[in-house]
Amino acid sequence: MHTKQKSSKKPLLALAALLVVIAALFGVYQFSKGTAVQGEKTITVEVVHKDGSLHDFTYHTDREYLGEVLVDENLVSGENGAYGMFITSVDGETADDANQEWWCITKKNERLNTSADQTPIADGDAYELTLTIGY
């Protein structure tokens, strides 16, 4: 009987450990996603096309998230998915999924871990949208 009590506690301990890990990961996500800044702000977006050409855009907005600005200004179009908006077209150029093309969002040349509609913006922020080939 003593053995049964030990074996019935193992699943409970595993479940408790799993819940602690989930809570920790959620906390890290909440901390790293940043906070939205209210009020008027100016941001710049550099688009890097497949042919290497660059187009710079400057936007003055009171929106709080990058995706809102990009859609409002008709710079991008995309599809909503489980992880937010997946950008399919930027500045008139559509990524070809058959060729493993996709639009990469970076800030100061570092890849973002959030979709455009989950990326908070602040005054003076600069972003890059680059047509990337290969997953």
User: How many individual helices?
Assistant: 2
Helix content: 25-40%
User: How many angstroms does the end-to-end distance come to?
Assistant: 54 Å
Number of strands: 8
Q: What is the element string, with H for helices and E for strands? A: HEEHEEEEEE
Which outline best applies? Answer: extended
What amount of the residues lies in strands? 35-45%
Query: Helix/strand-derived class?
Result: alpha+beta
Mean pLDDT: 87
Q: Mind summarizing the main beta sheet?
A: 5 strands, mixed
Rg measurement, Å = 21 Å
- Sheet with the most strands: spatial strand order: 2-1-8-6-7
- Low-pLDDT segments: none
Describe the protein's architecture and organization.
- There is one protein chain.
- The chain has 135 residues and is of the alpha+beta class.
- It has 2 helices and 8 strands.
- The chain has helices at 2-32, 66-72; strands at 41-48, 54-61, 76-81, 84-90, 93-94, 101-107, 110-111, 126-133.
- The chain has a 5-stranded mixed sheet, with no helix packed on it.
- The longest helix is centred in the N-terminal third of the chain and has 31 residues, at 2-32.
- The mean pLDDT is 87.
